Amino acid sequence: MSLLKPSFGGPPPSSRPEMILGVASGKGGTGKTTVALNLAKVAGSPIQLLDCDVEAPNAHLFVNRPVTRQGTVTIPVPEIDPTRCDGCGKCSQFCQFHAIVSLGTTPLVFPELCHGCGGCAMICSRRAIRERARRIGVVEERRDGNLTLVQGRLDVGVALATPLIRGVKAVLQPDSPAILDSPPGTSCPVVTTLLGTDFVLLVTEPTRFGLHDLTLAVAMVRELQIPFGVVINRLGVGDERVHRFCREQDIPILLEIPDDRRIAEAYARGQIIVDALPEYRRPFEALWGLLSHRSCVGRKDSDADLRLRA
Amino acid sequence: MKIAFTSSGKSLSAPLEGRFGRAPKIIVFDTETESTEVLDNRAGTEAAQGAGTQTAEKLARLGAERVVTGHCGPKAFRVLQAAGIQVFTSESTTVAEALHALQSGRLTALQAADVEGPWGQ
Question: Which domains does chain B have, with CATH numbers?
């Protein structure tokens, strides 16, 4: 794998897969990776799974294969040429992250605060700022049958998830559909993951916490104007409030996975549900069939038409 | 000489703030005129990151020669050092007590940051 560079705007149109599905949630631990892996497993043809939770990637725990390719992701950080710098301080005023500090002399640079936007180099009229590459993490690829798993892993001590997520997405190949397993929450890393996706599955659980964070996630995907549907995991715990919310908001519930102890046991052994418990295969296949025909998911269907029960 | 103090209040009787970069106020005492000036440091308290470097830069622009605070991390210390500002730490309760301790020679200047930066940097 050649050196990967973060691209600031997603993959160019020519290298875009036909279908990119995002799997997100407000709340953590609702089953994003479970849903993403099981959908990838039932796809039946080549599929890309991108683990974009670069602070804590875990999809590889279920894909017991060695790394086939690896690349390093870097961001450009400034380096000052003191012979050219006249200490004007424009770079320091420009930087919103206080990564470059000018005191009327050659500025001090703090690479660990830099987000790699390149603004300081652009604003410097004396061309005193050069950029050098700073490593922030790695992208790794594993293959298992039809599945290509790509995951990003942030280096310890680095707090810049978004450029690494762009580095993971830069590996997308145009020839097969892709599933993007998002980090939890609704902040920048999630938005960076979901930008450019065709459809988002929001995985939740039918509890008060589940609803609270689902509400935030729904507001986020609406802002991003990406069509979406809900997957309810651990059906049977909690109450009816998530169902009520989805009904009131006209949000399709696309899959319900029961609170089945055998699923947790299989998960704990590193097994994928559809492999360990074949009776769950059909609902996941049906959901994948639905999602891989984008014309269906883009349509305004009623809740009942789309709902599948595992 | 201008001496800066990190504080959570607006006068010499206000508490000395233990945090450098995220101190809500900076109180500047001018030893020549014996006057005080209060600066808002909301840019520091609300900064997602770089609160220390931002606050240190502010003190440098102000022309402060000394700063008294609770603790100082490595990035802020580097900026203060580059600006030639001496850093003193004090456990005094109020800014006035810290000023008195400094002027009576009971505080010694830091030679290096006394706490780690975020993420152990």
Answer: 2-103 (3.30.420.130)
